[in-house]
Amino acid sequence: MLTAVTEPTRRDNVSPRMLILIGVLLIVVGIVIWAVLGVPGVLGVIALAVGVIAVIVGSARAARAANERDAAVSSAARQMVSGSTVPDLATQLAKLSALRDSGAITESDYEKAKRQLLDRP
């Protein structure tokens, strides 16, 4: 049975986008502190360092989530292409469309899986 592709479960509640946003804001705060004081100052350096780390970690999490989602979509598409779960192409395309419409997969994931279905022998 085809299952919906969802965002990977995380131990924390901070999304990669939020982490990147927080990082950018901390970098801006560090730069403002530096500009106001004329020297970086301890708080400015801490804000810059934590901001850079948050951006790096957020970017890594976003990349990992994208890779996990791509792997899940590819697996679901292979399962559909093999014909072991759904009897005909129209039903398979309808299920893919429903996944896209529900937000479980992105438009690009939908197009990739649809292309795999249509290109099968």
Overview of this protein structure:
The chain is mainly alpha-helical and 121 residues long. The protein has four helices and no strands. The longest helix is centred in the middle third of the chain and has 42 residues, at 41-82. The chain is rod-shaped.
Uncertain segments are 1-5
Distance between the termini: 21 Å
Please tally the β strands and state the result: 0
Helix content: over 70%
User: Average pLDDT value?
Assistant: 78
Helical element count?
4
Instruction: Please state the structural category.
Output: mainly alpha
Biggest β-sheet description: none
Number of domains: 1
> What is the element string, with H for helices and E for strands?
HHHH
Overall radius of gyration = 21 Å
**Which geometry do the CA atoms define?**
rod-shaped
Strand content: under 5%
Descriptive tags:
single chain; mainly alpha; disordered N terminus
Describe this structure in a few short sentences:
The protein is an all-alpha fold. The chain has 4 helices and no strands.
